[in-house]
Design a protein that fits this description.
Blueprint: E1 13-18, H1 25-39, E2 49-52, H2 55-64, H3 69-83, H4 90-103, H5 109-120, E3 131-138, E4 143-148, H6 163-170, E5 180-181, E6 187-190, H7 192-195, H8 199-209, E7 217-222, H9 233-236, H10 240-243, H11 247-267, E8 271-274, H12 291-313
Parallel strand pairs: 1-2, 1-7, 2-3, 7-8
Antiparallel strand pairs: 3-4, 3-6, 5-6
Amino acid sequence: MSQSAADGDGRPFRILSLDGGGIKGTFTAAFLAALEAMTGKRLVDHFDLITGTSTGGIIAVALGLGVPAEDVLRLYREQGPSIFPVPRRGVLGWAAEQWRHVFGPKHSQEVLMKAVKGVVGEGKFGESRVRLVIPAFDGNRGAVQLFKTAHSPDYKQDYLLPAATVAVGTAAAPTYFQAYTEAGGGCYLDGGLWANSPVVVGLLEATCILGRRIEDVELLSVGTTTCPYHVSHARRNGGFLRWATGLADVFMQAQVEAALGQARLMVGERMLRVNAEAAPGRFSIDNASAIAELRDLGDQAARRHEKEVSQRFLFARAEPFTPFYAVGQPAPAEGATTSTAER
């Protein structure tokens, strides 16, 4: 159990959960930035744990390192068009882009890494001011991966990782980016493959690892916009070609709905879900031309929910997070590590 999370003491344990969604994370960043601007409070100071997947993981890591939400939003506004460049115009340009996407990743991971480092710098994951749990997928083990700060005595490895490694590792969406490979051989894929909405990840960490009572948990879950999904008649009876462009959307929406349903069973009304509904096809995970509209939707969501968020989550600062191991301390004893597969 964490040094700063006593079991059953009755204090609220506040979790911030951030969905994946590529450039649609502009909505999330805008919502959080507007909250900080309206309240004059830093979100990192008011939550006991932050969990985020893919684009939500990038935001979570940045917030944990003390980056203001407005600076995170600037990443999407200024670097989004470079990370997700608009395809070349014309039929031939479109065809060339699609052909390249068939045989290789659609976008450059180097550009993404440079943009992320522009926000989190060369900081270590363990320098976070709040507990972090960041889902990814381990390409070497073929198993789920959870990057965690040292909020348990068993978590002795991840805190030494570069923050940018964790942020880019959770956002390495197959076909959009190449798998993220560390210099030491680690291989990571997008956490959205299994936890695009990490609400249950956060709840299990709070209760099973940190020993908090489920009755004391308050959860703020932020999406990246949603739209009604309709399975067309062509797809209902179709094969690979009919489903190829829509299968990922089905998987992601199904996972999100399942996770949210499970979370509601666990905490009921103690979960506040913030999202915005869009017309089908309006946004995609790499359509940077929609950044301005996504930002506006995030601003609107903040105006609608600021009072409730303030009352439920920002009424008092969270107890300061004291990790079991800090960057710069001597490394833990050899042979005493615990792999993420055992967590």
